[in-house]
């Protein structure tokens, strides 16, 4: 499977994911592909919906360089103390916004072996977990920031998508015209 990161405008990024029912070798292979894609894309986290898999799991590597897998995660506790930090997202490339989130969280999940664990996280790790967890519920970081920024970014990505579709339509029209000319020549020769 050729895995790629979906970008803003793809409706799958706005859907709520379903729980993983079984941790299998196929799932573990997918998780490894996600780590590879995340690192290749210079990301620190990647959720399954970002690659078109509508299931509740994500991967991340924080500043401690530990590969972490969260399958069917649940954030069970958040601190009342919050902090601001500039966030970006592989699904919204080259856009950054300051987002306020709880500084500490407690999360329960399964790891890649299907074993349950509980993790108390703070700082950057807590932020990555919350950001990726949001993806599982169809929430993007731009939903938690300035509404004007969100509008501007959504408009920009919609325009990009429109231009891309227009280019694809033009390529198809050109290929069709060439095929028609070749068919006409072949008919004349016959």
Secondary structure topology:
Blueprint: H1 25-40, E1 45-47, E2 57-61, E3 67-78, E4 82-89, E5 92-102, E6 104-110, E7 116-122, H2 123-136, H3 147-189
Antiparallel strand pairs: 1-2, 2-3, 3-6, 4-5, 6-7
Protein architecture, described:
The chain has 190 residues and is of the alpha+beta class. It is built from three helices and seven strands. The protein has two domains: 11-145, Peptide deformylase (Peptide Deformylase, Alpha-Beta Complex); 147-190. The protein has helices at residues 25-40, 123-136, 147-189, and strands spanning 45-47, 57-61, 67-78, 82-89, 92-102, 104-110, 116-122. The strands form two sheets. Strands 1-2-3-6-7 form a five-stranded antiparallel beta sheet. The longest helix is centred in the C-terminal third of the chain and has 43 residues, at 147-189.
Shape: elongated
Number of domains: 2
Report the order of strands and helices.
HEEEEEEEHH
Terminal-residue CA separation: 43 Å
Instruction: Evaluate the radius of gyration.
Output: 21 Å
Mean pLDDT: 93
Per DSSP, the total helix count is 3
Short summary:
The chain has helices at 25-40, 123-136, 147-189; strands at 45-47, 57-61, 67-78, 82-89, 92-102, 104-110, 116-122. It is of the alpha+beta class and 190 residues long. It folds into two domains: 11-145, Alpha-Beta Complex (Peptide Deformylase); 147-190.
């Amino acid at each position: 499977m050729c895995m790629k990161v979906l970008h803003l405008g793809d409706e799958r990024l706005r859907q709520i994911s379903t729980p993983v029912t079984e941790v299998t070798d196929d799932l573990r292979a997918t998780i490894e592909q996600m780590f590879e894609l995340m690192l290749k894309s210079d990301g620190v986290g990647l959720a399954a919906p970002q690659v078109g898999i509508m299931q509740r799991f994500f991967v991340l590597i924080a500043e401690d360089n530990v590969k972490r897998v969260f399958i069917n995660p649940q954030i069970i506790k958040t601190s009342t103390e919050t902090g601001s930090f500039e966030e970006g997202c592989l699904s919204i490339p080259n856009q950054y916004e300051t987002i306020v989130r709880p500084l500490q969280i407690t999360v329960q999940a399964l790891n890649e072996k299907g074993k349950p664990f509980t993790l108390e996280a703070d700082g950057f790790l807590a932020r990555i977990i919350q950001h990726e967890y949001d993806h599982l519920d169809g929430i993007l970081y731009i939903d938690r920031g300035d509404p004007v920024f969100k509008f501007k970014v959504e408009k920009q990505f919609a325009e990009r998508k429109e231009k891309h579709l227009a280019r694809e339509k033009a390529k198809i029209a050109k290929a069709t015209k060439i095929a028609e000319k070749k068919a006409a020549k072949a008919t004349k020769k016959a």
